[in-house]
């Protein structure tokens, strides 16, 4: 496998990567996708690398996906959870990380509730850092796996395709990373949700905004449906979940009423019956489970490519 390098020694956000980086990650992930579908799913690519997974926020899918990717590459893996650590005793982020790095850790995968936390660390430690989600800022590997899944579903071409992102854009780091990624790949992006959940001035990122679900579905080739992030909402942004679903939910009946078949995605976890119904999420148009599989291949690619940038 070729050892061409990324332009950065970290993956802090899509905004810091260029189109060549994105395509290199996709090409590498395609090769690893073949690896994880073999009877023997491990390769020795990171045999001499120790990776620390530092999760200061709850996570299931992302943490398991990274851990599986690391083990498929034969890395040594250290898992850290803030809820059972000295962070609870008042230890600072930098002290926590430096203590872990003193154990000779080479790479750090970090999720943190504070936007900019991975960038802060990248200027103070020598290890490679992968941002696994920082506040409402970015979630780069989710955007990479989403775009990779779209490419596979759309005959490997996103340039000129119409991609719609539905739901809670205001609180979503997934939405921000998706916008940056899709725009760099030449796609047309439209956001759709309640006006209260669409950030002001978001059009400055080169995206369209709509409040009409049907018209947006009729326009798009792919519908990426995001969950309502109630845990990040300190005020009510809409009357009720039932009314949200009636106005902005995606159902199989709605999809069937379109004059074309579109691709349906969701990064998970799904609030079934709120942003999307079960029959839509589980339909033949849905690639939600493919996203999960592709996530392991994308994270293997990112880890592998960053291992060549260790200094």
| Category by helix and strand content | alpha/beta
Please give the share of residues in helix: 25-40%
Give a quick account of the main beta sheet: strands, pairing sense, barrel closure.
5 strands, parallel
> Which geometry do the CA atoms define?
globular
Average pLDDT figure: 91
Distance between the termini: 21 Å
Run of helices and strands: HEHEHEHEHEHEEHEHHEHH
Q: What is this structure's SSE topology?
A:
Layout: H1 19-35, E1 50-55, H2 61-72, E2 76-81, H3 93-101, E3 107-112, H4 117-122, E4 128-134, H5 140-153, E5 162-166, H6 173-184, E6 188-192, E7 208-210, H7 213-219, E8 222-225, H8 241-248, H9 252-256, E9 263-265, H10 278-281, H11 288-307
Helix pairs in contact: 1-11, 2-11, 5-6, 5-11
Summary, kept brief:
With 311 residues, the protein is an alpha/beta fold. The protein has eleven helices and nine strands. The protein has helices spanning 19-35, 61-72, 93-101, 117-122, 140-153, 173-184, 213-219, 241-248, 252-256, 278-281, 288-307, and strands at 50-55, 76-81, 107-112, 128-134, 162-166, 188-192, 208-210, 222-225, 263-265.
Q: Could you explain the architecture of this structure?
A:
The protein has helices at residues 19-35, 61-72, 93-101, 117-122, 140-153, 173-184, 213-219, 241-248, 252-256, 278-281, 288-307; strands at residues 50-55, 76-81, 107-112, 128-134, 162-166, 188-192, 208-210, 222-225, 263-265. By secondary structure, the chain is α/β, with parallel strands linked by helices. It has two domains: 14-139 and 292-307, Rossmann fold (3-Layer(aba) Sandwich), CATH 3.40.50.1370; 140-291, Rossmann fold, CATH 3.40.50.1370. The strands form two sheets. Strands 7-6-5-8-9 form a five-stranded parallel beta sheet, sandwiched between helices. Strand 1, helix 2 and strand 2 (76-81) form a beta-alpha-beta unit. Helix 5 (140-153) packs across helix 6 (173-184). It is globular. The chain starts with 18 loop residues before the first helix and ends with a helix.
């Amino acid at each position: 496998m070729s050892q061409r390098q990324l332009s950065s020694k970290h993956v802090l956000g899509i905004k810091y990567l260029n189109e060549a980086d994105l395509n290199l990650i996709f090409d590498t992930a395609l090769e690893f996708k073949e690896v994880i579908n073999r009877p023997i799913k491990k390769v020795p690519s990171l045999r001499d690398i120790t990776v620390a997974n530092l999760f200061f926020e709850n996570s299931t899918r992302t943490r398991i996906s990274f851990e599986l990717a690391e083990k498929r590459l034969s890395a040594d893996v250290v898992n850290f959870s803030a809820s059972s650590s000295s962070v609870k005793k008042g230890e600072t982020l930098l002290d926590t990380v430096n203590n872990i790095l003193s154990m000779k850790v080479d790479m750090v995968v970090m999720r943190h509730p504070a936007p900019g936390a991975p960038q802060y660390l990248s200027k103070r430690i020598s290890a490679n850092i992968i941002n696994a989600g920082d506040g409402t800022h970015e979630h780069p590997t989710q955007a990479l796996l989403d775009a990779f899944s779209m490419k596979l579903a759309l005959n490997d071409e996103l340039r000129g395709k119409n991609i719609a992102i539905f739901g809670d854009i205001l609180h979503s780091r997934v939405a921000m990373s998706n916008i940056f990624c899709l725009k760099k790949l030449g796609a047309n992006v439209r956001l759709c949700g309640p006006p209260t959940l669409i950030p002001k001035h978001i059009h400055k990122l080169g995206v369209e905004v709509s409040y009409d679900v049907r018209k947006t579905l009729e326009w798009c080739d792919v519908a990426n449906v995001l969950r309502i992030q109630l845990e990040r909402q300190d005020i009510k942004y809409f009357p009720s979940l039932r009314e949200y679903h009636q106005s902005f939910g995606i159902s199989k009946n709605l999809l069937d009423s379109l004059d074309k078949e579109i691709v349906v995605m969701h990064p998970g976890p799904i609030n079934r019956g709120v942003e999307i119904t079960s029959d839509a999420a589980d339909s033949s148009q849905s690639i939600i489970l493919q996203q999960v599989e592709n996530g392991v291949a994308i994270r293997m690619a990112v880890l592998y490519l960053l291992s060549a940038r260790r200094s």
